[in-house]
Amino acid sequence: MTMDRRTVLGLGGVAAAGVALAPGLTLIAAPPPDKSEASGDQRWAMLIDVTKCESNCTACTRACRQENNVPLFGDPTRDIHWIRKLEIRDKDHRRPSVSLPVLCNHCENPPCAHVCPTEATFIRKDGIVLVDKHRCIGCRYCMLACPYKARSLVYHKTEFPEGGNPNVPIRAKGVVEKCTFCVHLVDDGKQPACVQACGHAGHKAMIFGDLNDPKSEIAMRIREVKTQTIREDLGLKPHVHYQGL
Protein backbone atom coordinates (compact mmCIF):
# COMPACT_ATOMS: atom_id res chain seq x y z
CA MET A 1 0.00 0.00 0.00
CA THR A 2 1.39 3.38 -0.97
CA MET A 3 0.44 6.80 0.35
CA ASP A 4 1.51 10.29 -0.53
CA ARG A 5 3.11 12.54 2.08
CA ARG A 6 -0.06 14.49 2.75
CA THR A 7 -1.97 11.30 3.48
CA VAL A 8 0.67 10.06 5.88
CA LEU A 9 0.81 13.45 7.59
CA GLY A 10 -2.96 13.48 7.94
CA LEU A 11 -2.85 10.25 9.89
CA GLY A 12 -0.92 12.09 12.61
CA GLY A 13 -1.00 10.44 15.99
CA VAL A 14 -2.64 7.30 14.62
CA ALA A 15 0.59 6.38 12.91
CA ALA A 16 2.52 6.67 16.14
CA ALA A 17 0.32 4.20 17.94
CA GLY A 18 0.07 1.40 15.36
CA VAL A 19 -3.70 0.86 15.41
CA ALA A 20 -6.35 -0.55 13.10
CA LEU A 21 -7.64 2.02 10.63
CA ALA A 22 -10.31 -0.16 9.01
CA PRO A 23 -11.24 -3.85 8.97
CA GLY A 24 -8.21 -5.74 7.75
CA LEU A 25 -5.97 -2.64 7.59
CA THR A 26 -3.44 -1.83 10.31
CA LEU A 27 -0.86 0.92 10.27
CA ILE A 28 2.26 -0.03 12.23
CA ALA A 29 4.74 2.62 13.33
CA ALA A 30 8.23 2.16 11.93
CA PRO A 31 11.03 1.63 14.44
CA PRO A 32 13.00 4.73 15.42
CA PRO A 33 16.13 5.49 13.39
CA ASP A 34 19.35 3.75 14.35
CA LYS A 35 21.37 6.08 16.58
CA SER A 36 24.27 3.69 17.13
CA GLU A 37 26.47 4.78 14.22
CA ALA A 38 28.65 6.99 16.43
CA SER A 39 30.38 6.75 19.77
CA GLY A 40 29.25 8.74 22.78
CA ASP A 41 32.89 9.28 23.69
CA GLN A 42 33.02 12.35 21.42
CA ARG A 43 30.95 15.52 21.61
CA TRP A 44 31.53 17.45 18.39
CA ALA A 45 31.27 21.23 18.41
CA MET A 46 32.35 24.29 16.48
CA LEU A 47 33.82 27.62 17.58
CA ILE A 48 33.66 30.65 15.27
CA ASP A 49 35.80 33.71 16.00
CA VAL A 50 33.82 36.52 14.38
CA THR A 51 36.76 38.93 14.77
CA LYS A 52 38.57 36.88 12.11
CA CYS A 53 35.59 36.47 9.79
CA GLU A 54 35.65 38.90 6.87
CA SER A 55 32.33 40.13 5.49
CA ASN A 56 33.39 39.77 1.87
CA CYS A 57 34.65 36.20 2.30
CA THR A 58 32.38 33.37 1.15
CA ALA A 59 34.88 30.53 1.42
CA CYS A 60 32.82 28.60 3.98
CA THR A 61 29.50 28.89 2.15
CA ARG A 62 31.04 27.96 -1.21
CA ALA A 63 32.85 24.96 0.27
CA CYS A 64 29.66 23.77 1.94
CA ARG A 65 27.73 23.86 -1.34
CA GLN A 66 30.46 22.06 -3.24
CA GLU A 67 31.05 19.36 -0.63
CA ASN A 68 27.37 18.65 0.00
CA ASN A 69 25.95 19.26 -3.49
CA VAL A 70 23.71 22.05 -2.13
CA PRO A 71 22.04 23.79 -5.10
CA LEU A 72 20.97 27.36 -5.70
CA PHE A 73 17.69 27.60 -7.61
CA GLY A 74 17.78 31.37 -8.08
CA ASP A 75 14.66 31.89 -5.97
CA PRO A 76 15.47 33.55 -2.60
CA THR A 77 12.32 32.06 -1.05
CA ARG A 78 13.21 28.53 -2.14
CA ASP A 79 17.03 28.41 -2.13
CA ILE A 80 18.71 25.97 0.26
CA HIS A 81 21.33 27.26 2.71
CA TRP A 82 23.22 24.96 5.06
CA ILE A 83 25.38 27.86 6.21
CA ARG A 84 24.74 31.54 5.58
CA LYS A 85 26.46 34.76 6.61
CA LEU A 86 24.66 37.59 8.37
CA GLU A 87 25.85 41.12 8.97
CA ILE A 88 25.28 42.04 12.63
CA ARG A 89 25.23 45.75 13.48
CA ASP A 90 25.21 47.43 16.88
CA LYS A 91 22.07 49.58 16.93
CA ASP A 92 23.85 52.06 19.23
CA HIS A 93 26.85 52.20 16.88
CA ARG A 94 29.25 51.60 19.74
CA ARG A 95 30.82 48.56 18.09
CA PRO A 96 31.71 47.81 14.48
CA SER A 97 29.49 45.40 12.57
CA VAL A 98 30.53 41.75 12.42
CA SER A 99 30.05 39.02 9.85
CA LEU A 100 28.27 36.07 11.45
CA PRO A 101 28.20 32.58 9.89
CA VAL A 102 25.00 30.82 10.97
CA LEU A 103 24.30 27.11 10.60
CA CYS A 104 22.55 24.29 12.42
CA ASN A 105 23.71 24.54 16.02
CA HIS A 106 23.46 20.80 16.69
CA CYS A 107 21.80 21.48 20.02
CA GLU A 108 21.93 19.11 22.95
CA ASN A 109 18.19 19.69 23.43
CA PRO A 110 17.09 20.31 19.83
CA PRO A 111 13.49 21.52 19.48
CA CYS A 112 13.49 20.25 15.88
CA ALA A 113 13.77 16.67 17.14
CA HIS A 114 11.16 17.19 19.82
CA VAL A 115 8.46 18.28 17.37
CA CYS A 116 9.21 15.78 14.58
CA PRO A 117 6.20 13.42 14.33
CA THR A 118 8.14 10.66 12.55
CA GLU A 119 11.46 10.84 14.44
CA ALA A 120 13.15 11.77 11.16
CA THR A 121 15.31 14.24 13.08
CA PHE A 122 17.53 12.47 15.59
CA ILE A 123 20.67 13.02 17.65
CA ARG A 124 23.67 10.78 17.19
CA LYS A 125 25.56 9.65 20.26
CA ASP A 126 28.33 12.13 19.41
CA GLY A 127 25.88 15.06 19.41
CA ILE A 128 25.46 15.54 15.65
CA VAL A 129 21.83 16.20 14.74
CA LEU A 130 20.76 14.58 11.47
CA VAL A 131 17.67 14.11 9.31
CA ASP A 132 16.67 10.68 8.07
CA LYS A 133 15.37 11.64 4.63
CA HIS A 134 13.52 8.34 4.30
CA ARG A 135 11.39 9.19 7.32
CA CYS A 136 10.88 12.92 6.70
CA ILE A 137 7.36 13.76 5.45
CA GLY A 138 8.04 17.44 4.83
CA CYS A 139 5.67 18.72 7.51
CA ARG A 140 8.12 21.57 8.33
CA TYR A 141 7.40 21.47 12.07
CA CYS A 142 11.16 21.37 12.61
CA MET A 143 11.66 24.48 10.50
CA LEU A 144 9.19 26.37 12.67
CA ALA A 145 10.80 25.10 15.87
CA CYS A 146 14.40 25.96 14.93
CA PRO A 147 15.34 29.37 16.39
CA TYR A 148 18.33 29.62 14.03
CA LYS A 149 16.37 29.25 10.76
CA ALA A 150 18.92 26.64 9.80
CA ARG A 151 16.64 24.24 7.92
CA SER A 152 15.37 24.24 4.35
CA LEU A 153 12.62 22.35 2.55
CA VAL A 154 13.55 20.99 -0.86
CA TYR A 155 10.82 22.52 -3.02
CA HIS A 156 12.34 21.56 -6.38
CA LYS A 157 13.43 18.30 -7.91
CA THR A 158 17.19 18.36 -8.22
CA GLU A 159 19.63 16.42 -10.36
CA PHE A 160 23.07 15.24 -9.33
CA PRO A 161 25.39 18.11 -10.29
CA GLU A 162 28.15 17.65 -12.81
CA GLY A 163 31.33 17.07 -10.86
CA GLY A 164 29.33 16.68 -7.64
CA ASN A 165 30.49 14.82 -4.54
CA PRO A 166 29.53 11.11 -4.89
CA ASN A 167 29.81 10.66 -1.11
CA VAL A 168 26.70 12.81 -0.58
CA PRO A 169 23.46 11.38 -2.01
CA ILE A 170 21.16 13.53 -4.12
CA ARG A 171 18.33 15.18 -2.20
CA ALA A 172 14.68 14.24 -2.59
CA LYS A 173 11.93 16.76 -3.26
CA GLY A 174 9.66 17.41 -0.29
CA VAL A 175 12.06 16.68 2.56
CA VAL A 176 13.86 18.97 4.98
CA GLU A 177 17.62 19.20 5.12
CA LYS A 178 20.32 21.16 6.92
CA CYS A 179 23.98 21.27 7.92
CA THR A 180 25.32 17.88 9.03
CA PHE A 181 28.73 19.11 10.25
CA CYS A 182 29.86 17.22 7.10
CA VAL A 183 29.30 14.01 9.01
CA HIS A 184 30.76 11.91 6.18
CA LEU A 185 34.05 13.78 6.62
CA VAL A 186 33.95 13.70 10.42
CA ASP A 187 33.42 9.93 10.40
CA ASP A 188 36.49 9.71 8.17
CA GLY A 189 38.60 11.66 10.66
CA LYS A 190 38.45 14.94 8.72
CA GLN A 191 37.21 18.45 9.42
CA PRO A 192 33.96 19.88 8.01
CA ALA A 193 34.33 21.51 4.59
CA CYS A 194 33.62 25.02 5.91
CA VAL A 195 36.36 24.74 8.53
CA GLN A 196 38.87 23.49 5.99
CA ALA A 197 37.98 26.27 3.55
CA CYS A 198 38.26 28.97 6.21
CA GLY A 199 41.74 27.73 7.07
CA HIS A 200 42.83 27.57 3.44
CA ALA A 201 41.60 31.16 2.98
CA GLY A 202 44.00 32.20 5.74
CA HIS A 203 41.38 33.38 8.24
CA LYS A 204 41.26 30.37 10.58
CA ALA A 205 38.09 31.75 12.14
CA MET A 206 36.50 28.31 12.58
CA ILE A 207 37.57 25.52 14.91
CA PHE A 208 35.94 22.09 15.03
CA GLY A 209 36.65 19.39 17.54
CA ASP A 210 35.71 17.20 20.46
CA LEU A 211 34.50 18.97 23.60
CA ASN A 212 34.92 15.76 25.57
CA ASP A 213 38.67 15.87 24.95
CA PRO A 214 40.09 18.46 27.38
CA LYS A 215 43.27 18.66 25.30
CA SER A 216 41.48 19.44 22.02
CA GLU A 217 41.96 22.91 20.57
CA ILE A 218 38.28 23.79 20.84
CA ALA A 219 37.96 22.61 24.46
CA MET A 220 41.01 24.61 25.52
CA ARG A 221 39.88 27.72 23.64
CA ILE A 222 36.43 27.67 25.23
CA ARG A 223 38.05 27.34 28.66
CA GLU A 224 40.51 30.17 28.06
CA VAL A 225 38.49 32.86 26.26
CA LYS A 226 35.02 34.30 26.58
CA THR A 227 32.61 32.62 24.18
CA GLN A 228 28.86 32.55 23.85
CA THR A 229 26.11 30.78 21.98
CA ILE A 230 23.09 32.27 20.23
CA ARG A 231 19.92 32.30 22.32
CA GLU A 232 21.45 30.76 25.41
CA ASP A 233 18.23 31.70 27.23
CA LEU A 234 16.33 28.92 25.44
CA GLY A 235 18.29 26.21 27.24
CA LEU A 236 18.98 24.27 24.03
CA LYS A 237 22.73 23.91 24.75
CA PRO A 238 23.87 24.58 21.17
CA HIS A 239 27.22 23.21 20.06
CA VAL A 240 28.17 26.16 17.87
CA HIS A 241 30.05 28.71 19.98
CA TYR A 242 31.09 32.23 19.03
CA GLN A 243 34.03 34.34 20.13
CA GLY A 244 33.96 38.13 19.83
CA LEU A 245 30.22 38.36 19.22
In a few lines, what is going on in this structure?
By secondary structure, the chain is an alpha+beta fold. The chain has helices spanning 5-11, 13-17, 59-68, 111-115, 141-145, 183-186, 193-200, 217-224; strands at residues 20-22, 25-26, 44-49, 83-88, 98-103, 121-123, 129-131, 151-153, 176-178, 206-210, 227-228, 240-243.
Give a verbal description of the structure.
21% of the residues lie in helices and 19% in strands. The protein has 245 residues and is an alpha+beta fold. The chain has two domains: 1-30, no CATH class; 40-243, Alpha-Beta Plaits, CATH 3.30.70.20. The strands form five sheets. It has a four-stranded mixed β-sheet with strand order 10-3-12-11. The radius of gyration is 19 Å and the shape is globular.
Helix and strand arrangement:
Layout: H1 5-11, H2 13-17, E1 20-22, E2 25-26, E3 44-49, H3 59-68, E4 83-88, E5 98-103, H4 111-115, E6 121-123, E7 129-131, H5 141-145, E8 151-153, E9 176-178, H6 183-186, H7 193-200, E10 206-210, H8 217-224, E11 227-228, E12 240-243
